[in-house]
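Quick start: what a row looks like.
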Amino acid sequence: MTTPIRRRRSDGRAPAPTSGRLRVGVDIGGSKVAVLVVGEGDSVLARKSVPAASSEPDQAIAQIAAVIREAVGEAGATMADVAAIGLGVPGRVDAATGDVTFAVNLGWQHLPLGRRLEAALGVPCVVENDVRAAAVGLHRHEGYRGVDDLIYLGIGTGISAGVVLDGRLHRGVRGMAGEIGHVVLDPDGVSCACGLRGCFETIAAGAGIARAARTAVEAGESTILAATTDPTAVDVFAAAEAGDAVAARLVDRAAAAIARMVHELVLAYDVELVVIGGGISRAGAPLLDRIQAGLARIAAPSAFAAELLAETDVRLAGSDHDIGTRGAIALLDPLAKEVVAREAVG
């Protein structure tokens, strides 16, 4: 049986749960759609994950609505028991309207996601960029209490950063603050979905690492990855740990790029904590060791960089698979309204 949740009010943009209702968090990524249903005290009632949503808007809405209904059903409830749904989407989001104006890795443009899901499900929906939602969730997490300046660097199919400054989510004028996945690191590099070449994503995101592995195999390089039909980033990390030189080179390149971006984020925002999450972070300690080695190389010739990085806590989110969905749920909590507030919106 679902335990009632006390009714609370938020700031108008983020509907709050009503008496006897549940909250749902949805993390829409380039490779999957994950749903989390919680009750009182954020107790987990159901989790569900399905492959990525379609690039065709009507199909995407139907798929997302269906997996939400299924997750709520697995929680022993119906949509009538749900007070509100928070959704995190990779791309540019108008947090005031719930519209996704541009999502490169999903193939969406000008999709009124919030309004269409509200119409389909009959439940208020709050939509935010997925990594920004995760940053809000981290700020609310008991393990990070007292940290008001932090960055969540999400590295999965794509890459983005969610920035919390002075306890408030920083979106920027166009809601694009932290979109570092499209910072060009190699002007002569491979083409990116955004239209540029050599973006950070093409080097360190899961899709970029997988593409580099396929290129190496097609070029006839000696690697155990050749035995895999379509190697993924997971395969590359596993091969690197097994001593494969080609895989190790690709992982080292990705880790060096991540270290460079961590340094530049700390320079730009002067935060005390950087948490690296997303699918790549599940590579665990071997990846963190390589990132730390990259940061050490950056710090070696510069006393300034060394001091800055020594005062910055850099860690992996690791095996916490609920960061995205819990971040989406955090958007619904009235206690988070100061974190998500921005004077120029609403």
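That is the whole record. Residues 146-316 form a domain with the Nucleotidyltransferase; domain 5 fold (CATH 3.30.420.40). Residues 1-20, 342-346 have pLDDT under 50 and may be disordered.
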